[in-house]
Structure formats: structure tokens, C-alpha cells
């Protein structure tokens, strides 16, 4: 008997043949010999577990998936950098509004404000998300 296993997001993890493999994962799904061979030989798509069945997604869709993963990864990194930048200026916005920042704090506050603005615009860069010109973290 032939089996195929997928991760929680439906991505192909492995193929198993009961004549070869002593242990088959409990999450593996039994499939026909024909489908088993197709998942090995057909390289024009990605095999996934979708709506309770094994499906092949065209490479055009695969390219879109990779693109959306790149975008999501870049935006997640941007959000991490924004959170780190926010920590560098905690409480400074109120102090700025009422004029309580000294020269060093004023420089820091404005430098991080510019940095955060640049981070929020990375998705507007030509070539995003394949190519990203990350802004430099303020130093000083």
C-alpha cells in the first residue's frame, strides 16, 4: 500500500510504501499506486492536501505562493523592526509634544521617526519583495 503525508498547512512531507517502510506516520493518507507515482514523476506543480484530497497546484500558483510567502516574510520582519524601534522611543512622543526632550533625545526621536517611516514604505520599493533596501538603524 502507498501513502503520502502532509504537514498542517497541507505541504507534502513524504511518501511511504508499506512494502519498504516499517513505520507509516499516523497522519499519512493511503493513495493509489498511480497517484503515488504521479507525485514522484510529475514536476510541473506542487502536491498539497486540499479540502480532504491530494491536489496538484500549477507552478503558476506555486510562484504566487512563493511570492506571497516572500511578501509575508518581509512584512513580518518589518513589523519586528518597527517594534524594536518603538522600544527605542517609548514615551518620547508625549515629551516631544510638550517640549521636554533635550538635544540628544530630540535627535534620537527624529532619527527613529524617519527610520520607522522608511520601514513603513518598504512595500512601495521597486522590486519588493524580492529586493528590499532596508533602511539603516539609527546609530547614536
TrEMBL record:
InterPro entries: Phage_T4_Gp38_tail_assem (IPR003458). Pfam families: Caudo_TAP. This is Tail fiber assembly protein. It comes from Pseudomonas retamae.
